Amino acid sequence: MEKFTKVKELLASVEADVEKFYNAGNSAAGTRVRKAMQDLKNLAQEIRAEVTEKKKSAK
User: Fold this and answer.
1) Gap between the terminal Cα atoms of the chain
2) Which of the ends of the chain has fewer CB neighbours closer than 10 A, N or C?
3) Range of 27's domain?
4) Is 24 among the domain residues?
5) Structural domains counted in the chain
6) Is residue 11 one of the residues assigned to a domain?
C-alpha cells in the first residue's frame, strides 16, 4: 500500500510540469515528465510483483 501512495504522490508532483509542457511548450518540463513517467513505470512494476507474490503466498 505504501508504494501505491508513492504513485499518487508522484502523479501529483508532476502535474505542474505536464501543464508547462503541453500548454506552454516548455521542453525542460517535458524532460521532467518523461523521468517521472519512467519512475511511475518502475513503481507500477514493483507493485505488480508484490501483488503476484502476495497472491501466491495466500494459497
Assistant:
1) 20
2) C
3) 2-54
4) yes
5) 1
6) yes
Q: What is the pLDDT of residue 59?
A: 73
Q: How many CB atoms lie within 10 A of CB 30?
A: 15
Give me 5's grid cell: 501512495
Question: In degrees, to the nearest 5, what angle opens at C-alpha 43 toward C-alphas 38 and 44?
Answer: 95
Q: What's the pLDDT score for residue 58?
A: 82
Which residue in 20, 23, 49, 18 sits closest to 34, CA to CA? 18
**Separation CA 48–CA 44 (nearest Å):** 6
Distances (CA, A) of 14 to 8, 52, 53, 57: 10, 28, 30, 35
pLDDT, tens only, 3-59: 999 999 999 999 999 999 999 999 999 999 999 999 999 999 999 999 999 999 987
Query: Would you state the cell numbers that stand for residue 35, as one nine-digit string?
Result: 523521468
